[in-house]
Amino acid sequence: RNMSSAGPEGRKKMRECEGLIDSLVYYIQGAIADHEPNDKATENCVCVLHNLSYQLEIELPESYAQSIYMQRRNISNNDKTPGCFGTRSRKVKEKQQDTPLPEEKSNPKGVESLWHSTLIRIYLSLIAKSTRNYTQEASLGALQNLTAGTGPMPFSVARTVVQKANGLPSIRAMLHVSHPAVKRTAVSLLRNLSRNTSLQNDIAREVLPDLVSVLPECVPGADVACETAASICYTLFNLTQSSSHNARLLLSAHGLPKVIAISMNDSNMFSKASRAASVLLYSLWSHTDLHSAYKK
User: Fold this and answer.
1) Which of 37, 188, 283, 284 could lock 130 by a disulfide, CB 3.0 to 4.6 Å apart?
2) DSSP letter, residue 197
3) pTM, two decimal places
C-alpha cells in the first residue's frame, strides 16, 4: 500500500508485476464472498488498486491501450481518432463518448483488470457493504480515477457504473455520511460521471435532489467542505447546462437560494466554491423559459 503511492515509476513496476493485481482482486472477491468487507487486509488491497488506477489513462503505453481498445474497431485510414489513452481534446471526447467499446475479455489478467466491469462491481459492492471509511473512500477514489479521462475507457466505466451495475444508489448513500473525505470523493466521482451527456438525465433523476440537500446554506469554513461544495456546484452545472428539465429539478429541490448564498461570498479563502456557484447561476439563467420561476 505504501509502495503503490510512490509515484509513476512505482505504479508502473507494480502494474507490470505478474500476478500482483490478480491476487489483490482475488483476495477482495473472497472477502466479499465470506461477508468480510471490513477487514484491514481488504482495505489495504483496495487502497493499492486505488493508487494503481491513478492516471492510468496517460501512464499506460499507447500501443498497449490500442491493442486492448482499438482491435475490434473499424477505423478508416483517414480517421485520426487517437487511442483512448491519448488526447484531451474536447472534440475527440464528444466523438468518442458515443463510440461503443469492444466486448470485454471474460478473464482479464493483470492491468486489464483495473478497468474491467468485474472490479467496478467489486468497488460498488464495497461502497455498499463496507463500514470502513478508508475502504469506502478508496473504492470511490478508484472509480473517480477510472472516470477522470476523456477517452472511451473512462466513458465506458461511467456507463457501467450508472447503467449496467446500477451504482448510483450506493454512491448517493455516500453523500450523507459524516466522514468529510468520503463525501468529497463521492461528489468528485459524480462530477466525473456527469460529464457524460448520455448519463446526465439518469444521474439527475437519481441524485440531483441529494446533491442539493448536502449543499451548504453558505460557504463552509473547512477546506474539504468548501472543495466539496465547489464540486457539487460543478456537478449541478453539468447536469443542468443542457437540460431545462434538470434545471427545474434543481429549482423544485430549493437549490437556488443555496447557490445564490454561496456565490455571494467574496472572501478570497472561499473563492473556489463561490466561483463554482456563480458559474452555475450563469448557466441556469440561460434557460429563458425558467426566468419567471426564478424570479418567483
Assistant:
1) 37
2) G
3) 0.86
